[in-house]
Structure formats: structure tokens, C-alpha cells
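Hi Y.,

Following your request, here is the sequence exactly as I used it, all 388 residues.
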Amino acid sequence: RRVFMAFNLASSSSSYSYSYTSSSHRLVSSSGSHRVCLSGHRHHHRRRSCCRLWRVFSVHHMDPSNGDVTREFRMRNASNHPAVGFGTYKCGYLPPSSAQAQTEGDANPSGAGPSASTIVASALDVGYRFLDCAQFYNNEADVGIGIQNSGVPRSELFLASKCWTTAIAEGPSAVRSALCDTLDALKTDYVDLYCIHWPVPHGRHVVAYKELLKMRDEGLIRSVGVSNYTLEDYDELVTNDVAEDDLPLVNQIEVNPLLYRKKTIEEFQRRGVLIQSYRSLRDGKAFEIPTIVDVANKHGRTAAQVMGRWLVQKNIVYIPKSVRRDRMEENIDVFDDFELDDEDVTKLDHLTTDDALETFAQLYRKCVVRDTQWDGTTDGVRTTFTIH
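Below is the corresponding structure, written out as C-alpha cells. Let me know if you'd prefer a different format.
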């Protein structure tokens, strides 16, 4: 049985709200703002859209700070999502279970490059406003410092993060704690988007997702999404009584011309789920592919810009990453005076091989249980799912 208490403490300069449950309680203050992370409920008035927007569509928005045109996508909850973001994976830190760390035998190489705070501050100075973060990346505190050092107001940012498999497998309290740690690290009272990182089996991802919905209703999350979900994982939410209006707004998956799962992407979009792309630039490993080079030469653009433009023309969020400022500027420049024609798009669409799809399937089976008690086994892992 849960006991819930709430009271307010007010002073001339600030107001604190404190709540308590028998299972957990927490009062947090950061940057002059105050919020509560707990397992109970908080009174929060959340405006719901009066109409259902099942079609994901794009809008143009003028950024008065630099005069550039920024493309955004509209989500089902009527919130705008930037079409281009900046990825923070491996910025200043290599997670211990990442493939690169295991290959190189070093989870956190000292002096291996600029810190995440330096990289993020530079990206924000270039003009990025959407930062893609995650508990697994283990660098959110540095990302928060970079945001603070940049001087960019919170109101101009779209901050997204993801809950890792360890917390998902452990249960709702661990999921809640993970979000609270992210909010502390990023020095914010809320995130614009929070996602389940991988669909951990045995129903764990469903339970975790429902906890995200509770935290959304408490005002800690603006939009709820998922990452690395197959259509079957999404359907598992549906069959476990997640209401239609509460289904994921976003699914972040790997998308690039070398891994284009057309059937999956188009079906998610048909259901009103906005697709985010990670490994948008394939870690630079696709820049010498003749087809991509030919299209780039045709338009007087770089391979990276062609790959980015290919994504946004498909209404897919493009998330490049680089530690170099010149490449940050290059990567974000995919809108002005640049459009791929139907022939270009068709050529890029057909670069995905059967081997690439099989590699994806193997990675999915491994990662849904990665860093959990089922790591290294196939216990609970789907044997069949939509690959294409």
C-alpha cells in the first residue's frame, strides 16, 4: 500500500514541492529550478491535443537568432521535433560494453579527444538545438556542462534521452531513478523526449514504458518514445493495454542507405510514429561508396550531406555526430538550395543488402538482453520479427 503526502515550501525567491511515497522520495534543486522525482503523483496540468494527428508532417520554422531555416516535424501530440539533431554517443567516453571499447580494451580512454562538454558547446554554437543523449552513453553530466557553458536558453533546446537495459530489466523504480539522474546531469526539470533504449523481453520493456507514461503525466517528460523497436515490439505495447493516445511518438532505429528497412519504416510512419535515425552517416564508412559519391558530385555536395538529405526527405530525423566543428557545419547543411531527385533517392534506396539485414537481426537479438541477467542467452528473445 502506498502512502502519499505532498506539501509546499515557499520563500520569497522560490517554491519547493515535496512529495513522499513509501517506496521512494526525492527533492531536487538545480539552476534555480526545483522538481520532484518520485514514485507517487504530482499535480500537473498537461494540455492534451483536442484532435488526433496520425499523419507525421513537416513544417518550416524561421530561427531569428541566425536567420537560417530549420525544418521540424510535427508529432502526434502536436509538439514539434527538430529534423536534425546532434548525437552524443561516444562523445568523451566509450561505454564499457560498446563494440569499440571491447575491441580496443578501453572503456574510457584518457585524453582520447575533446570532452563531451567541449563538443556539445561547439555543436550548440554551430546551431544544433536537438541533443540526443542516453543513460548508456555515461556522459550526460558533461553534456549538461556543455549546455550550461553554451549560454543557449533551455527554451530553445530539444533534449532527448533513453533508459538503458539494466534499468529496464530491474523495474520501474530503476527506470524512474535513471530519468532523475538524467535530469540532474542535464540540469533541467524535464526532457522533451524520453525513450526505452531496447525492448528488453519478459515484458520488462512494457512495464518500463508504462512508468515513462506516469512520469510524463508528472511533467518530467514531454513526449514518450522507444528505440530499436520492431513492429512486433510495438504491437506488444498494444496488446498489453497501452492506450492508443499513449503509444510511442518516436522510434529511434538505425537508418541510412546501407540499412534501409523500408517496410518497417513506412509502417511505423503510417501508424503516426516519427522515425529517428542513429548511425545516420554510418560512422563515415559509407563516404566512399560509388553511388553515394556520384550523387554527391552531381549536386556539388558531400557524401554526408547526401545521406542527411536522403533522410529528411523521407521525414526521418537525421542525427549526425562529429567532434570537429567544420564537419558539424557540413553535416547540418542539408536544406538550403539542395534536393535529391527521384532518381537519386531510388539509387540510394537500393544500397541495402541481405547481409546488412541479417547483421541487423543478429545485433537486435544480442542487444535486447545486453547488460541484463539474460545477457549472452536467447532467453525470451524473439526468434521471428519483421526485418525489412
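The chain has 13 helices and 15 strands.

Thanks again,
Q.
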